[in-house]
Write a sequence for this structure.
C-alpha cells in the first residue's frame, strides 16, 4: 500500500479508513460508485464520485463503477452510456488510473447472487413466501409472521429453483430472509430478497425471471468486488444492520466490507432527485438532460462548468453525517474563483446599439492592444480593431439616467475599454422613439500615450468595432427555480423561473472567430462564456456559464 497523500481532506470517513489500515483490518482500500442506470447523473452524484474516487486516489486504492442494474423495467443503455461519459469527464486527469476502464454490472453477478440465495435457504435462513406484495408489506408493518415462514429447507430449495425456472407468475412468490419479525428495525423483519418479474433486462436479456432486491444485491456485490468501505447516503443507515446480517448469515470469510453513511448533497434553487429531473425533461421545461440549466453533470458541463470547479466544490463542502442544505452560491463561487484565473478576456456586446464617431475618418482602422488575462501575465495581449462605427451595450446608455450613472448619457463622457474617451452628442431615434444610434465625439488625445491619456472619467464600458464584429447567438441563463427550496412544499414545477433563459443576438470581437470549445472566456463586464455544441461553421452559439457577480444577492438585499 502507498502512503495516504499529505493533502488529504479530513473527515470521519477518512478517519475510519486510516484506523482500518492501521489495525490491519484492511491492507488496501477499495471503494465503488454504484449508480442505478435509470437517469442522468446530477451534482449530488458528483459529490459521491469525488468522495469514492478521491479516497481511492488518496490511499493508493481502487474505485470501480458498478451499474446497480437490478431493476429490469427502468434501466436503459442510454443511461449507462451517459453515466460513463459523465464520470470519465469528471475524473479525467485526476483519478482515471483508478477507473480500470469498463464499468462493472450487478447483473454480471446474478449467478453468484443466486448461489448465495440457495446457500442461505440451505442454512434455513431464507424461505419462499406466497404472500402477495401488499400482504408482505402489511405483515412487516404489523410485525406478523407469514404462514409460509416455517417451510422446510427442502421445500424452500425446491420452490426457489422453480421460481428461477419460471414456473410462477409475477408477484406469486418471493424469497425472504428469515430474521426477526418483531425487530424494532423494519428492515430486519424478513425483508424480501428476490421477486419474480418476467421481464427482459438490458444486460442479461431473457435469462432471468427472478431479480434480487437492493439489499441482497448491493451487499453481496460489495463483497464480490472486495469493496472495503461501502459509502452511501444517510437514508441507508437503517439498512446497515441488514447489510451486516447478510454477510454474517452466509459466514463469508473476511475481509468483509463495511457500510458507512454520509449526508447527501442538497442544494438551494434546484431539485436533485432523478425522479424530479426526469419530469423536467419529459414535460419539456428544459431542452433535455443536458440543458445548461439542469444540475445534471451533463447540463453543468454544457453550461461551461469545468470538472475541476465541480470537484473543488465537491471537496470543499466536506463530508458529514448530518443532513444539510448547501447554497447554490458555493458552487457559483467555486466557478468564479477558477474562471477568474483561467479565462481569457474578450470584448462582446450582448444587446448592441450603434455608436458613430463623428470626428473619426470613415475608413480609418486602428489596432489597439488588449490584455488577455490580468491574472496571468503569460497570456500577453492581442490586437482589437477600432473604427468609426462601434457597438456598445444598450444597458450602457441611458437617456434620462438617475444621478450617479457613470455610463453613457446625452452630453456625458465615458471611456471605451483599452481605447479612447467619447462624448455623446446626439441621440438618433426611430419613428416610435426607440434609440437607434448614438453620435459621439472622440477625444483623440485620450488614448494611452496621448496628451490627455490620464484624464479621468468615471465610467469605462466595453464595445466592438461594427465593421469587424462577429455575429453570434448568446444564451443567457438564470437559475431554473425562483425560490431557494422548490421542493419544500407544493409542486416544485410551480416555482420554475420563467426568465431562466434569454437568447440574444450579440456582436463579438473578431478574435473570437478562433474560439475553442474547451476554452472559457470572460466577456468583459458580462460574465464567463463557453461555446455551445449547437455552434456550426457559420454561426457560433455561446452559453453564459455565470455572471461576474452574484446578481441574486443584490436582488435579495433590495
Ligand atoms: P436520486 O435519489 O437523486 O435519484 P439515487 O440515490 O437514487 O439518486 P443512485 O444512482 O442510486 O441515485 O446513486 C448512486 C450513488 O450516488 C449512491 O451511492 C448514492 O448514495 C449517491 N448519491 C445519490 N444522490 C446523492 C446526493 N445528493 N449526494 C451524495 N451522494 C448521492
Ligand atoms: Mg437509488
Amino acid at each position: 500500500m502507498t502512503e495516504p497523500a499529505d493533502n488529504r481532506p479530513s473527515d470521519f470517513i477518512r478517519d475510519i479508513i486510516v484506523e482500518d489500515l492501521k489495525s490491519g483490518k484492511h491492507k488496501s482500500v477499495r471503494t465503488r460508485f454504484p449508480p442505478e442506470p435509470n437517469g442522468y447523473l446530477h451534482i449530488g452524484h458528483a459529490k459521491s464520485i469525488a468522495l469514492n474516487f478521491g479516497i481511492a486516489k488518496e490511499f493508493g486504492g481502487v474505485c470501480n463503477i458498478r451499474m446497480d442494474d437490478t431493476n429490469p423495467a427502468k434501466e436503459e443503455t442510454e443511461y449507462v452510456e451517459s453515466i460513463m461519459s459523465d464520470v470519465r469527464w469528471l475524473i479525467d486527469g485526476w483519478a482515471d488510473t483508478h477507473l480500470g476502464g469498463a464499468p462493472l454490472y450487478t447483473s454480471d453477478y446474478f449467478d453468484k447472487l443466486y448461489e448465495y440465495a440457495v446457500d442461505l435457504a440451505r442454512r434455513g435462513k431464507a424461505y419462499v413466501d406466497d404472500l402477495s406484495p401488499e400482504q408482505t408489506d402489511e405483515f412487516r408493518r404489523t410485525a406478523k409472521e407469514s404462514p409460509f415462514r416455517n417451510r422446510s429447507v427442502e421445500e424452500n430449495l425446491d420452490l426457489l429453483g422453480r421460481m428461477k425456472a419460471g414456473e410462477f407468475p409475477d408477484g406469486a412468490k418471493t424469497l425472504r430472509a428469515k430474521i426477526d419479525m418483531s425487530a424494532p428495525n423494519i428492515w430486519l423483519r424478513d425483508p424480501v430478497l428476490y421477486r419474480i418479474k418476467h421481464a427482459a433486462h438490458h444486460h442479461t436479456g431473457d435469462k432471468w425471471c427472478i431479480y434480487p432486491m437492493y439489499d441482497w444485491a448491493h451487499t453481496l456485490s460489495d463483497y464480490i468486488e472486495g469493496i472495503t468501505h461501502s459509502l452511501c447516503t444517510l437514508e441507508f443507515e437503517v439498512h446497515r444492520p441488514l447489510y451486516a446480517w447478510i454477510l454474517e448469515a452466509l459466514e463469508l470469510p473476511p475481509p468483509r466490507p463495511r457500510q458507512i453513511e454520509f449526508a447527501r448533497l442538497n442544494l438551494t434553487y434546484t431539485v436533485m432527485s432523478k425522479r424530479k429531473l426526469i419530469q423536467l425533461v419529459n414535460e419539456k421545461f428544459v431542452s433535455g438532460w443536458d440543458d445548461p440549466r439542469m444540475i445534471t453533470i451533463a447540463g453543468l458541463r454544457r453550461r461551461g462548468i469545468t470538472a475541476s470547479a465541480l470537484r473543488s466544490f465537491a471537496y470543499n463542502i466536506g463530508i458529514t453525517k448530518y443532513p444539510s442544505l448547501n447554497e447554490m452560491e458555493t458552487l457559483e463561487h467555486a466557478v468564479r474563483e477558477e474562471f477568474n484565473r483561467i479565462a481569457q478576456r474578450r470584448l462582446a456586446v450582448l444587446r448592441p446599439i450603434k455608436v458613430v464617431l463623428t470626428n473619426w475618418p470613415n475608413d480609418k482602422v486602428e489596432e489597439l492592444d488588449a490584455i488577455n488575462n490580468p491574472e496571468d501575465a503569460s497570456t500577453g495581449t492581442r490586437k482589437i480593431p477600432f473604427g468609426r462605427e462601434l457597438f456598445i451595450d444598450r444597458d450602457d446608455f441611458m437617456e434620462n439616467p438617475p444621478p450617479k450613472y457613470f455610463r453613457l448619457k446625452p452630453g456625458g463622457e465615458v471611456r471605451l475599454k483599452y481605447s479612447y474617451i467619447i462624448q455623446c452628442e446626439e441621440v438618433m431615434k426611430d419613428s416610435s422613439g426607440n434609440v437607434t444610434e448614438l453620435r459621439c465625439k472622440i477625444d483623440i488625445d485620450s488614448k494611452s500615450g496621448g496628451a490627455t491619456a490620464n484624464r479621468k472619467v468615471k465610467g469605462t464600458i466595453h464595445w466592438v468595432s461594427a465593421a469587424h464584429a462577429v455575429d453570434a447567438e448568446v444564451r443567457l441563463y438564470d437559475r431554473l427555480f425562483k425560490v431557494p427550496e422548490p421542493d419544500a412544499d407544493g409542486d416544485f414545477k410551480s416555482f420554475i423561473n420563467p426568465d431562466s433563459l434569454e437568447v440574444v443576438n450579440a456582436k463579438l470581437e473578431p478574435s473570437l472567430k478562433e474560439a475553442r470549445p474547451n476554452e472559457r472566456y470572460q466577456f468583459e463586464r458580462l460574465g464567463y462564456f463557453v461555446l455551445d455544441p449547437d455552434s456550426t461553421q457559420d454561426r457560433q452559439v455561446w452559453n453564459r456559464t455565470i455572471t461576474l457577480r452574484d446578481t441574486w444577492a443584490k436582488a435579495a438585499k433590495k
